[in-house]
Amino acid sequence: MSTSPTGAAPETGSDMPNLDFAGTTPYEDYVQADVLTHLQHLRSDDPGEMVFLVTTQVMELWFTVVVHEWETASRALREDRVPDAMAALRRSAHELEALNASWNPIARLTPAQFNAYRSALGEGSGFQSAMYRRMEFLLGDKSASMLVPHRGAPRVHAELEKALAEPSLYDEVLRLLARRGLPVPAEVLERDLTQRYEPSPQVEDVWVGLYAAPEEHDELVQLGEALTDVAELVWRWRNDHLVATRRAMGSKTGTGGSAGVAWLEKRARKNVFPELWTARSHV
Prior knowledge:
The protein has 13 helices and no strands. With 283 residues, it is mainly alpha-helical.
């Protein structure tokens, strides 16, 4: 029951919300807004640093949501709950669209604007993001060397080590296809999960067969399309990152010692769920 600011019940028919709480508001208790809005510790006097920092923090939150969705989808696939997996994948597509839109506030930085606070980053770089690394691992882009930057954070390192050894989202899809009687080769199903996924001609043939007879394999074709939506949006993310970086700093060495644009160009050329793309040439 709502009460007035004095604690008394409001008059009947009053449209005033409850304004009086013994401690923090229920909204604050749930959202932790005070924590979120006090996480910005600027390192320069440039007014543009605030939008760069907040945008980066927002990206980290979206990474967290997307990882949650893909882990939900992976678990559903393991349990043969394909509709639940597709629901999580479709939610993640909307979330990836929001993540990609996060580039908009900083995508038009000139070199001078970026240089005004670039030194505040020190050796910080996006490739050091642990949650983004978990996204990449779920996509099958595994690399044990990418755990090295996190050795000083035991909890984070342990989470990444676990994710490195677990099946990727695509691994779970291929295992599902095998359980449905499709000829996914044993060397793919039994591969070393800590290694980067490499395209397989036999897996390509499986997708060709599914897409060539959609009436017989409607659920699996829908799953393939949900995965393709995710893959396209990941590709767009990488390309938006590349363009924003190229505009802000050209071909200079990136923060953290990366190759900057050259590194991002290499990443942007990689297809996620590769056989879903190459199979289309043969249907």
